[in-house]
Amino acid sequence: MAQCVQSVQEFIQDSFVPLVAALCSEEAERLTRRNNLSFAELVRPFCRLTSEVHMRDPNNQLHIIKNLKIAVNNIITHPPQPGAIRKLLHDVVSVSQPAEGLVANVITAGDYDLNISDRSVKASVPWYSNWKETLMELNTSTFYSATTPWFESYRECFLQSMPASDHEFLNHYVACMLVVSSSEPDPVEQFLKLSQEQHRIQHSSEYSYPKWFIPNTLKYYVLLHDVSTGEEQRADSIYEEMKQRYGTQGCYLLKINSRVSNRGADEQIPDPWSQYLQKNTIQNQDSYEDYTVVSNKNTDHLISDGVESEIKDGLSNNFKTHPLQLDHPSGSLDSTDYMKASTSLQDSKKSNSGTPHGACLTLTDHDRIRQFIQEFTFRGLLPHIEKTIRQLNDQLISRKGLSRSLFSATKKWFSGSKVPEKSINELKNTSGLLYPPEAPELQIRKMADLCFLVQHYELAYSCYHTAKKDFLNDQAMLYAAGALEMAAVSAFLQPGAPRPYPAHYMETAIQTYRDICKNMVLAERCVLLSAEILKSQSKYSEAAALLIRLTSEDSDLRSALLLEQAAHCFINMKSPMVRKFAFHMILAGHRFSKAGQKKHALRCYCQAMQVYKGKGWSLAEDHINFTIGRQSFTLRQLDNAVSAFRHILINDSKQPPAQQGAFLREYLYVYKNATQLSPDGPLPQLPLPYINSSATRVFFGHDRRPAEGEKQAATHVSLDQEYDSESSQQWKELEEQVVSVINKGTIPSNFQPTQFCLNRYSDNSKFPLAVIEEPITVEVSFRNPLKVPLLLTDLSLLWKFQPKDFSAKHDGETKEQNFGNTEISKGSGTCDEDMVGTEAIAEFLINSEETKVARLKLFPHQTGELHILGVVYNLGSVQGAVSLDGLDPSIGLQTGKFVSNGLSVRGRQDLEIQGPRLNNTKEEKTSIKYGPDRRLDPIITEEMPLLEVFFINFPTGLLCGEIRKAYVEFVNVSKCPLTALKVVSKHPEFFTFGGNTAVLTPLSPSASENCSAYKTVVTDPTSVRTALLSSASSADFGVGTGGSPEVIQVPLPDAVLLPGASVQLPMWLRGPDEEGVHEINFLFYYESIKKHSKMCHRVLRHTAVICTSRSLHIRATVCRSNALGDEEGRGDNMLLFVDVENINTSETGVKEFHIVQVSSNSKHWKLQKSVNISGDKDTKLASRERAKLCFKAVRCKNSEENYTFADIVFGNEQIISSASPCADFFFQSLSSEFKRTHVQSHTHASQRAVKQTFDETVRLIQRCSEVDLNIVVLWKAYVVEDSKQLILEGQHHVALNTVGKEAFSFPQKQELPETVLLKFFRPENTPVPARPTPEQLSNLIKTSLHYPESFNHSFHQKSLCLVPVTLLLSNCSQAVVDVMIDLRHKPASSEALEIHGSFTWLGQTQYKLQLKGQEVYSLQLKACFVHTGVYNLGTPRVFAKLVDQVTLFETSQQNSMPALIIINNI
């Protein structure tokens, strides 16, 4: 139980006090009414004695009475009706409420004491940490109160209003005061009349009420004198007469009303009556409002749904004449009477509110009244009681024949000869047995009650115990229960506690009252007394069980109060039972609600909520919050109701859809009522739907145009694309590349990469830039946690805007002023549309448990700083969405056809985005700090041009190397001209806009006739396959100009695109060499003619997806020709072998490939002619076929910087390889090839930088084996598609760098072995060789033997055959080389001798020569043969070394092919 103000002893003593009746004359009543008080009310505050009182018991022992209190009541001849008592108790509980702070907030921490230790909590609660937190929260609460004053008021009122009964005398009147005014004509006569009236009431049979203690009731005569108006002498004389008539002990002169009404207006006199009178006169109007709401069923159809009739208990009284007097004899009321009762109470409340009490009394009068009560008690009441006890005791002793006399009973009790008591179940139902008033059993009970009233508990216990046995023997159960009850209380109250409290007496009494006598009022009194006693002995568990046992359906108010006290018992136990506390508080709250005590019900649920909150018991939380919401709404605490319903909706509810729909409708209804109270207030925050703020995306710019026919718009960026960090980094690098080129190799410090779409992964640390008059789209991610759909209407963004002129020179002079749409009222109005236009979505449906995004737009019309704050919308539910029999609620709910149930509320939700956690410095790593996220705070800049790009006839599939012509259309859709249009791509070899020189770009007529992408010239079909020469500079094609090859200038006419203008440019595409799907990124860069401070440039992105399939694979090798001289007599030529294979699969529909032309382009070499043996004019390759081509290459005459192009045509048309697009793709592949080799060689750059010991001559030697020759193979493919034959064109490039090394049109992939051993090694710096390799040195000298193929000789005439042979030596390098020729033949094996035979060189066997750079030397030799046969003359061994080197290296030329000679005999 909760803590009480009084101790248990004080409580019991004040509950049972001597009752004194007051009978006043009309004149005396009039005198007291001047103070707005009756006589009984006048003396009530002074009825407690301030000093000890002494009396003697029957054994003449002195007995001390402390703190005695008496009760003076007006005589009421009709017993109070039970319904009226219930109404009174109801009002007492309603009035007694905790402080406002305890109820005002839904999340109140509680108002009860949790005085417990951690140890006890830990021992009793499994979830110690959670419970400890909850309990500590309760303990440290500021709204913290340990008492329940409403329960104490109820208990006091209940005990005072108990009607007197015949089986006990505690509520019987002991004495009667007869009060007469001194101003009456004959006061003594009036005393006689009053005395007769009292005698008639007590002894006449027509009055059964009130009850009197003994027939000879003490009469005490009080003369009331009004000091202000009456004659004091007359009063004194009358009083003297009274003393003579009634004796000095039996009368008293009481002087009152000393205060003169016209003086002392400022004098403050205390009002001791208010605390007593408020219990009878209800001052709080709120308690009646509860009834009004509950009983009026039409007030709120939502709140009443599902709720039982809350007035089941029924307040069956309305009292007009007297607080406990009934007008309706039926004892029960319908709702109409209920309303009348409320009305009458409100009327009485109005009449009593603010009425001063004791206005005519001074402090002296207060003392006189106090003295009067003391005199009455000392001289009248206590002597009368002492005398009565003596008489009763004497009567009992004088009856010797009675075996049940007091002393015999006492003797048997103490001697131990106890008569066995029968159990309740064995006893007959004799509750109706009545004793006559003179019965000795009742005399014992009467004596016991008198002793109890004057605190003689030991004697009282003996009497009660004796009476109990007598009653049980007679099976008078009502009497026996009363004796048991008071015997237990007497035993507890005995000073010194000679015996333990007999709790089983109380148990038996309660059971008897409840089950046999069916008297719940007496049972309740027993429970209240026993629970308080058990609590004082810290027996909280037993007290709780007792309280819970008396809860029943017959009284909701009693059940609620007892359950609440039981809950407090659980929390006050040594090991607090927190969950039991919460559970019983819920039960108490439910019963309070049924009893119409809305405030107490709300308080109970709030206290229980703090235990259930956050423990995962969602259904319990939902129930409590729902009830709190309803009760708060009924009490018009709308903010609390909204908060409670909000909790139901925002937690992950496990309720079924129908229940969630009901919760949502209740919430909307309550919310609507709350917002109607303050229609002009700020928009409140709505709990639904959830917004994932971090998933908010912001897009700047117009939506992308869809493709129109052959036109395909640039893909750019849209909200439909998923964020890819790798792709984002690539776009950033491309933009940095082009900005670096524009700014001559450096990136400006204020450079900010363009971000069109901001999300949680992008860098949002800087304020994003948006352009005036271009939309800003905010994508907000909503999630509906409920199982019912939500309908949002009139959904738009909330923003704040600060205009700024960025073009002004002095920003500080501009006056800053904030604008925004945050002040929009609940209506759908807008403001400041001329600054920022706001687009609203009319209807937005979110299905059950769905996550859905809404895209909301803003249109800025001025420059400045924009801050997007959140979203504003009307929240509603869809009617009938739940009742679809398991189908998806969204079926049939198309846009614009939603049926709202009429309930919708307007509110807002803020977008609050937390930035990324900082983790750079030590301080940031050790603490938790977050950086800014500014994606919702764009800066609106000045007008900028806006480019749109369309691709016409842009292919999606190509063959590897295929050339296709498309067109690009550039459109300026803004009001500003744009310039400096460039495109940057990581794959510049994929496309070209043509050369810079206008001469090279036009196409020939024949090319347009054949729909060819190349510039062609018709050739003579009879001409030999010799090279057709042309030349071009790499600068014409953007290569070698010093800029980045990836950044390409778009050739706009006049370099400017005016507003609204469009231009179409041709674009040639070449399929990438590697098969598969290729994503090729184009970044178009452009600027405004005006320079802006915030935004310097703009970009447009396009990603082309090309699927390439295999076509041709080309291998080429170049080797030195043995023939030293060409047609022009120069000694430098090579042979080029080209191997072309068709690796295309027939799935693509390619029938065959035709090699139409092979071109070379180099600064040093050119193709001279084709040396193919095949006579076919055209080379055709079907699937998986391979062709070998051989060409002769010679060194170019000119040593200029221009590239020489040599075309060898296999068809009838020559493709001008030095013109666009053939040369463009060649030069781009050249630069990309150079870039690739440069990257590979870059790893050794540091070593080369360290070791600069190369000699120029060594470099010259290395250059001997290098060759700079590039081959372009041009082809046509015949494709059958849809029964039509198409001709596709293409070209492949092969770059030849080293003599004898095979080169490919596409780098070969190295196939990795399936399993590779993991090796750990230390990377060692491989030293760069300071000398040329043997392979490079072996290519220094080129050798050639000149001799007749066959030689006829007559061996009969001359046995030796001498053949002249010329050995030509050519120095291929620019350095001076020492050469040594060794003619000594050393065959490898005897087998070689047999095959080739043996011959001998005549003359010198070794020659030592020195050849200058590029020198050709001729050496005359003679070979001597002795037999006919075929001989290999390639036996001379040639060694070469640099002049400054020692080691000789053998050249590899003589082993390239055998030099065979046939010797014939004539």
SS element count, helices: 35
N-C termini distance: 146 Å
The percentage helix is 25-40%
Strand content: 15-25%
The main sheet comes to:
11 strands, antiparallel
**What's the gyration radius in Å?**
59 Å
Given helix and strand content, the structural type is alpha+beta
Can you walk me through this structure?
There is one protein chain. The protein has about 1450 residues and is of the alpha+beta class. The chain contains 35 helices and 55 strands. Strands 10, 22, 24, 26, 28, 31, 36, 38, 40, 42 and 43 form an eleven-stranded antiparallel sheet that branches. Strands 12, 14, 15, 17, 19, 20 and 21 form a seven-stranded mixed sheet that branches. Strands 8, 9, 11, 13, 16 and 18 form a six-stranded antiparallel sheet that branches. A hairpin with an 8-residue loop joins β32 (about 1075-1090) and β33 (about 1095-1110). It is rod-shaped, with a radius of gyration of 59 Å.
List the topology elements.
Blueprint: H1 8-15, E1 19-24, H2 26-33, H3 39-43, E2 53-56, E3 62-65, E4 71-74, H4 82-95, H5 100-104, H6 118-124, H7 128-139, H8 149-160, E5 173-181, H9 187-203, E6 218-226, H10 232-246, E7 251-256, H11 274-277, H12 286-295, H13 335-352, H14 363-398, H15 406-415, H16 440-453, H17 457-473, H18 477-493, H19 503-516, H20 520-536, H21 540-549, H22 556-572, H23 578-594, H24 598-612, H25 618-634, H26 638-650, H27 657-677, E8 690-691, E9 697-700, E10 711-713, H28 725-742, E11 757-758, E12 769-771, E13 776-783, E14 790-803, E15 819-820, E16 836-838, E17 841-846, E18 851-860, E19 864-878, E20 900-910, H29 922-926, E21 939-941, E22 947-952, E23 957-959, E24 962-972, E25 978-984, E26 991-992, H30 1005-1009, E27 1016-1018, E28 1028-1032, E29 1047-1049, E30 1056-1057, E31 1062-1070, E32 1076-1088, E33 1097-1109, E34 1112-1120, E35 1133-1142, E36 1150-1162, E37 1165-1170, E38 1179-1181, E39 1186-1195, E40 1203-1209, E41 1213-1215, H31 1222-1241, H32 1245-1250, H33 1256-1264, E42 1266-1281, E43 1284-1298, E44 1303-1304, H34 1334-1338, E45 1341-1346, E46 1350-1353, ...
Parallel strand pairs: 1-4, 1-5, 5-6, 6-7, 12-21, 23-33, 46-55
Antiparallel strand pairs: 2-3, 8-13, 9-11, 9-13, 10-22, 13-18, 14-15, 14-17, 14-19, 16-18, 19-20, 19-21, 22-24, 24-31, 24-43, 25-29, 25-30, 25-32, 26-31, 27-41, 28-40, 32-33, 34-35, 34-44, 35-39, 36-38, 36-40, 36-42, 37-39, 42-43, 45-47, 47-51, 48-50, 48-53, 49-51, 52-55, 53-54
